[in-house]
Amino acid sequence: MDIRFERTPLAQAEAGALILLAFEDAAPVTGAACDAALAQLYSSGEFKGKPLDLVLLHSPAGLAAQRLILAGCGKLDDCKPATVRKAAGAALRLAKGKTKSVAIALTGAQQTPDLIAAATSGAILAEFEPEHHKTNGDKADKRIDSCLIAVPAATPGLETAFHHARVIAESQNFTRELVNEPGNLLPPLELAARAQAMAAEVGLDCEILDRDRMAQLGMGSLLGVAQGSAFPPALIILRYKPETAAPTDHFAIVGKGVTFDTGGVSIKPADGMEKMKYDMAGGAAAIGAMRAIAQFKPRVPVTALIPAVENHVGGRAQRPGDIVKSLNGKTIEVLNTDAEGRLILIDAITYAQRHLGVTHMIDAATLTGSIVVALGHVHVGAFSNNDEWYERVRAASQSAAESLWRMPLDDDYKKQLESPFADLQNIGTRWGGSITAAYFLKEFADPTPWVHLDIAGTAWLDDGKPWMAKGPTGICVRTFVELAMSWR
Ligand code: BES
Ligand code: MN
Ligand code: ZN
Q1: pLDDT score, position 141
Q2: Is the predicted pLDDT of residue 139 greater than 70, yes or no?
Q3: Is 466 exposed, middle or buried (0-12, 13-18, 19+ CB in 10 A)?
Q4: Statement to judge: residues 230 and 378 lie in one domain
Q5: What pLDDT band is residue 449 in, cutting at 50, 70 and 90?
Q6: Does 399 reside within a domain?
Q7: Per the confidence metrics, is the pTM higher than 0.85?
């Protein structure tokens, strides 16, 4: 979709559908003849302007557009950017299949950087469809080719807000495209190739550690998971370095990149296993965030590390009871081969600390089914070993409108991870499963300030929303970008 920002009076915006934000307080005023009809729409009570209310009118009198869509945003007073993002997205999705061009007009008090950004990202995120592999015609028919974000007056800062929102939302869609790819088409080396191609485009440094290099370094924990797959593993490293200054901080984003999770020998039930292609959503979010970070150039050096493996069964696969040695030196008894995410993350975390000297870490991982039990599909589960750093992450997630819920991480959970045969075992009991998983990571992340985000419940939408297609959400991309920019 080609998206542009222009100063165009709304009556003159040429589009198959013109989208206007509509509030509960009063009918929108366009200054054209259709205003009478809009007033009647409100006075009849048929349209109230509540959040996500939508109405579509044909041939609105006095407007250049062929259709007019009112996108309900609730009360003007408590209108949040997230509401506008969803309303604009839902309106664009309503236009799909009807026309190929839309315009979203913001007028009067709506012309703020925040709302321009919200409308822009709403449109871009709503345009995404996870149907890349469909070869039939509906795919082409549903696509919106062009979107105009129109404002009547010149206001400084609006264009910047548009550009910023566009880069982030397009990066989020880049992540969603990766997450949606099935395990056969996106094995670890293909994920690495996609990261490498993106890096070349935006000017990032990209290094891929292969199996031999990881063996040489001593990443026994990661390699134990990888050994059951015919696809070789990769540790993908993307680096952004600011041009100016010699900052003392170094920020690392670590993302779980399991390109498919069968569970290994502790195999998962067949029902729903196909969804485990999204087990690299954390890694894909890290890659997508770097795409935006490269363009925004924050003051802090940022390195993304994506341990990429497939967790599979086979004659060479890891067994329950196997003992592996991590890069950190600690030995781990692998009681359950399906608790593989933590096993690959810790070697990436140790590498970031020892070989790159990072000072602040965040990781995102579709780590546990338990976090879905605890928080459903609403909040990202957040864990940290450092209150100050956690507060910065929380603030960034708030500006990004991605909701975190902090979970406990006390030492009382440690006991569950004691093994009779090794330094640690890779699972605890059924109870508090997302916490013991996080505690396992903490054993390696300490003492570096670190936040772990368990996105198992938030990286995939089982049912589409009016503003967003079913499938990958691209969660964490916005938070990662905001966080990197918080150093500015
Ligand atoms: N990738 C899964 C976690 C997951 C489950 C993500 C459901 C999305 C939806 C992870 O590797 C896993 O299998 N975790 C196990 C851990 C258990 C064996 C301790 C789980 O949560 O069941
Ligand atoms: Mn698993
Ligand atoms: Zn997994």
Answers
A1: 82
A2: no
A3: middle
A4: yes
A5: very high
A6: yes
A7: yes
As a residue count, the chain comes to: 488
Q: Is the pLDDT of residue 126 over 80?
A: yes
User: What's the rounded mean pLDDT across residues 70-97?
Assistant: 96
Same domain, 237 and 184: yes
Residue 78 — very low, low, confident or very high, per pLDDT cuts 50/70/90? confident
- Chosen domain end from 94, 109, 127: 127
- Which has the minimum average pLDDT: 11-20, 147-156, 418-427? 147-156
CB 347 within 8 A of CB 238: no
| Residue 318 pLDDT grade (very low, low, confident, very high; cuts 50, 70, 90) | very high
Characterize the bridge pairing of strands 101-105 and 146-151. Answer: parallel
What is the residue range of 380's domain?
171-485
The answer to whether position 463 is within a domain reads yes
Q: Are residues 112 and 243 in the same domain?
A: no
Name the residues annotated as catalytic. 268, 342
262 C-beta closer than 6 A to ligand 1: no
- Same domain for 308 and 190: yes
Token duo for residue 56: 């579509």
Residue 31 placed within a domain: yes
Ligand 2 centroid to Cα of residue 163, in Å, is 38
181 lines ligand 1 (CB under 6 A): no
**Band of pLDDT at residue 269, cut at 50, 70 and 90:** very high
Is 152 part of any domain?
Answer: no
What CATH number does residue 57 fall under?
3.40.220.10
**Strand, coil or helix: 137:** coil
Q: Under 8 Å CB-to-CB from 439, ≥6 apart: which residues?
A: 409, 413, 414, 416, 417, 428
Six token digits for residue 165: 């929102």
Domain check: are 391 and 459 in the same one?
yes
Beta strands in 366-417 (DSSP E): 380-384, 404-406
Instruction: Kindly report the average pLDDT of the chain as a whole number.
Output: 97
Structurally, the chain folds into a number of domains equal to: 2
Pocket flag, ligand 1, residue 436 (CB < 6 Å): no
Which residue owns the Cα nearest ligand 1 atom 13?
A: 338
